[in-house]
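We modelled the chain as a single entity of 394 amino acids. Its sequence is:
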Amino acid sequence: MPVRSDSGIHPSQVFEYSPQVRSDANHLFNISPVKSSSAFTTSEAAWPGECQSGSLGAPDWKTVLAEAIRDPQELCRELDLPSSLAEHARQAGKGFPLLLPRTVLPRIRKGDPHDPVLRQFLPVWEETQAVEGFTTDPLQEQAALTAPGILAKYHGRILIVTHPACPVHCRYCFRRHFPYAQALAGKQAEKETSTGVQPRLIASVVEYLSTHPDVTEVIFSGGEPLIIDDPEWKAWLKALADIPHLRRVRVHTRMPIVIPQRVTADLLATFERCPLTKVIVLHANHPREIDNPVSDAILRLRATGAVLFVQSVLLAGVNDSPEVLVELYEKLSELGVMPYYLHQLDRVAGAHHFEVPEHRGREIIAELRRRLPGYLVPQYVREVPGATAKVPIF
């Protein structure tokens, strides 16, 4: 799903990219290794040299993304699931098809169609049901865009819509119905793929910041912000480091959880050498998502000096028990990741089967408070269209 942040609009409303976005995200990339540009600070001479390319393992992240599973029949074969599920998934996935990196497969129990990790990504027949109160735009986001590439909803912060694609299709995605192809089509979109730095968007953001000295934090969202390449991150952070009134950059991402290979040596060096305070908000819902490669990626991110948080969505059949969430938050706290938000499900069409009643959510939070220290209990919130902040439920 697009990674949540303090505010959001889908990036395809903002700037042009290749029209092949969600179901064929690998078309956006040159799969061959990309050589990094030089490291930076506000002074180029302060951090000379070029860091080494590399990742947490082979294959590299672009290959993992390109080889992600898109065929439900293949997924059922890989996980020893009944073939009847594949046909349901094919029908339910029309318009928002299956997309699952193979790096996630070892975290799923074979032969279990109700596995909580699998449930987040396998299309099921319930998605085809129309349910009152569940709409295609539950947050009414299309009215929230205030400038090209920028959402400026809250005081002192702006959100940059960095990229429209995601490395995985979460079935509860609150932007799953956005018409990507229509919004991104056109001659300019064909020319501006993500293989190069996005100079127009960077220039637009820098210009906006130059006239808004009250902004102290920039939030990278999407889509998935870490789907842009390492040279682009260097260009972004170099430009932002030169804004005197900025204090923080924040990245909301699911990528290190589903494709930990994305945490490359180049990316780490870029984050480490950025003089701004770095905040990284990961999206994880179940403790089994945090395997050894993911843990390694998280520890490497932490070593850059970034402050790490996790946010989750309360999902029926996935994490709607205090035992699961206690395990998730304890596991992540050992890696230096603190809880941020536990979101009540946005009522997006096709996701009604994930909804947990709010009274049950309150019971879960009360139990977390009994079992965990206060700093390991997330804020239980919902997003209300038009509100200037997340609305606490508990």
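As a brief sanity check on the tokenised model: The two ends are 25 Å apart (CA to CA). The chain has one domain: 11-35+45-392.
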